[in-house]
Amino acid sequence: MKWQKQKKEERKQEKREEKKRTMKVKRLVEEWEIWDKKEEIARFKEEIRKLVLKRFHKWIKVFGKKQSERILIRKVWDHAIDLKK
Question: How many CB atoms lie within 10 A of CB 60?
Fold first, then answer.
């Protein structure tokens, strides 16, 4: 009977340790994903700086994906421009 309790405690301890290892791995994976995103953003910024003329660098945010997909708010002075062929 005593050895059964001991075995049960050992299994519980093993499960706790396994859970700790799993959590540690999950945290590492999340850190790597964050690092990868930051690295990707940095690379993207470098590429944009190469493509955009130096005098336009202060407006570089406009060339980002997030800004380019943003829908502008309609204003009173908005109007259609009819083009002739």
Answer: 13
b/e map 13-34, b = 16+ CB within 10 Å: eeeeeeeeeeeeeeeeeeeeee
Q: pLDDT tens, 51-83?
A: 888 888 888 777 677 777 777 788 888 888 888
Structural domain that includes position 14: 2-68
pTM recorded for the entire structure: 0.37
pLDDT tens column, 29-52? 888 777 777 788 778 778 888 888
Query: What is the total count of domains within the chain?
Result: 1
Of the CA atoms within 13 Å of residue 75, those in its CB half-sphere come to: 3
